[in-house]
Amino acid sequence: MKRAIAEGSKLLILVLCLNFPSEVELCPGACVCYSEPKITISCQQQGLGAIPIEIPVQTQRIFLHNNRISLIQSTSFTFCRNISILWIHSNNISLIEPGAFYGLDKLEELDLSDNVNLKSINPSTFQGLVHLHTLHLDRCGILELSTGLFRGLFSLQYLYLQDNNLQELPDDTFLDLANLTYLFLHGNKIKRLSENVFRGLTNLDRLLLHQNRVGGVHRRAFHDLGKVMTLYLFNNNLTVLSGETMAPLGSLQYLRLNGNQWVCDCQARSLWDWFKQFKGSSSELECHLPTQLAGRDLKRLPSTDLEVCLDSFNQIRTSVFSTKTKSGKLPTAGPTLGPQDNAQKCCPPEMDKSFIYEAKAKAGPSSHSNRASPNNPLKDKENMAKTKHQVEVELPKNGSSKHINDSPFGTYPSVVDPPLTNLKPEFLGPVEPSTTPTKRRQGCSRKNKSRSQCRMAQPAPGASPSLPALPSLLLPPVMWSLFCFS
């Protein structure tokens, strides 16, 4: 009897000795294996291009981060039924085959973050992970969340989806995540929140949506978020958020809405009313419109400032085409130029039209200086007309005179006098220096007392253009003859 017991003890010691070295031999190359506190295979930062195939069956934790793994095959973890923690973050994973995590019903934490080429994930990838409570999918370049991607993950509590390229969240994306407490969606390109986008998240505590492009929130988007205590919506494109939208957030304690383009008019009144009963902590809501309220905190405005309703066209026009000054106010446009008077009169108004030719003609040494005369603008016009026979000025063929030029006025007047270049050169007097006083245009002096005197001052039809001073020489003898015969 004693002999049998002694032989049994020797056999047990032999078995134990054989088992110990076998565990050491099963540790994959370039990895470190240890059994306390849990059986762990650590292969991080080893330059691995694929998942090791000789992972022991009893392994509970696998660390494969900071390698060059690009593919997770459907057979990579087939025999690893005891895994509770799997870290594969910071690799080059671009594809996860369907069924890659099938059968890992003890898995509690899965980290796939920092795989920038993982742009899409098959909707069946996480099926069967009934004990998973933490899932890292941040910084993966994900473009969209497939319908049913999180189906069946009833134990999930922490979901990290920040810093991806998500542009929209389909309705009921998180429907099965009744135990989710933290949802991180910041740093994406999400544009709007629909009615049922957060349906099912009845135990959510923290929702981070900052640094997206959210411009619209459905009035019932938060209807299942009665336990949310922290909500971040800062640095988005929000202009209006109704109090009805915020009403379901009965447990809210920390709210950040800064960094949005708030319109503080009658549309903001319901949100203003909601803040009156909100007991938690909130950031400022800096008004963007109207301009007289720019920079002020919506929550601190008197109710009288929210009685005016801005039209939508004014909002769009201001936000697209205007720029804030250093003082925070929007600049106002200067007065516009009115239309020119087109009426034909005996004596035209005293208008300086020198800018008509300013951008076209180059003045010679003795020509007009193109500078407006403060005493008599009509002389400037006549002097400019005399210069025009030296330089060709192109006018549009259709007779229109509305052009853009480089002069300070910007446009021509609506009516321009007929070009004098069409007259014969002999009817245009010699060009006078700009310093010489110019003559008034004959027949249009404002000193004429009557039409007869105006006609008398005009040259006779048969008068020679070479004798411009003849009427003035004949005037004294005519006056003496009238005096003598009267």
From TrEMBL:
Database matches in PROSITE patterns: LRR
Keywords assigned: Cell membrane, Cell projection, Glycoprotein, Leucine-rich repeat, Lipoprotein, Membrane, Receptor, Repeat, Signal
Biased composition (Low complexity): 459-469
Subcellular location: Cell membrane; Cell projection; Membrane raft; Membrane
Signal peptide annotation: 1-26
Bias type Basic residues, positions: 438-452
Name of this chain's protein: Reticulon 4 receptor
Organism of this sequence: Naja naja (Indian cobra)
